[in-house]
Amino acid sequence: MKNVLKFKFIGLFIFSMFIFSNLQAQSEAKVGIRAGVLFSNQDFKNGGLDINTKAKLGLDVALVADFPVGEVLNISPEFHWLQKGAKIEDISGDDITATFNYLEVPVLVKFKFGTDVGFSVFAGPSFGYLIDASKDISLNDYKKIEIGIHAGAGIALGPLVIDLRYLYGISNISDNEIEVRNNGLGAGVSLMF
């Protein structure tokens, strides 16, 4: 099953690169690759339940694109593989790290100020698909689809873009009576072509 998912991901990655490169050839669009980190956490709610969580560090790798719509307005779809989750304290006081691997597609509205060196602010919805989790986590307890929001700002230095973003999970990812929502603070560097 994991091999099938890996081949689907590789196929989707190649297809996305093909689409991005064709779109780039048709306009002044830019495409790129992004690598970063995500400090993620989870909010748990269920009546009087009180679960203390801590942020965990995860990876974030993406294909990114910028399509100019106006002088400062861009539409920026992205295709991420990222690691969400949290550290949860068990009964004995030890931290257990729960990692959830997602494929996520944010579609951002970006306002860019400046050309080669500039500043941008962005926000937009994101649509995530849970592909895998830590070995001690049952995927049957979690929904495969997550809807969220990405919002942040970036600095462009020629072809390099450095950004900070906040990720907020709108949808409940739990498939049982406990509500669980992802959130996180990410930082990344993109190389645009």
TrEMBL record:
Name assigned to this protein: PorT family protein
Taxonomic source organism: Candidatus Opimibacter skivensis
Transmembrane segments: none
InterPro entries: Beta-barrel_OMP_2 (IPR025665), OMP/PagP_B-barrel (IPR011250)
Coiled-coil boundaries: none
Domain Outer membrane protein beta-barrel: 24-174
Keyword terms of this UniProt record: Signal
A Pfam family annotated for this UniProt entry: OMP_b-brl_2
Superkingdom: Bacteria
Signal peptide feature range: 1-25
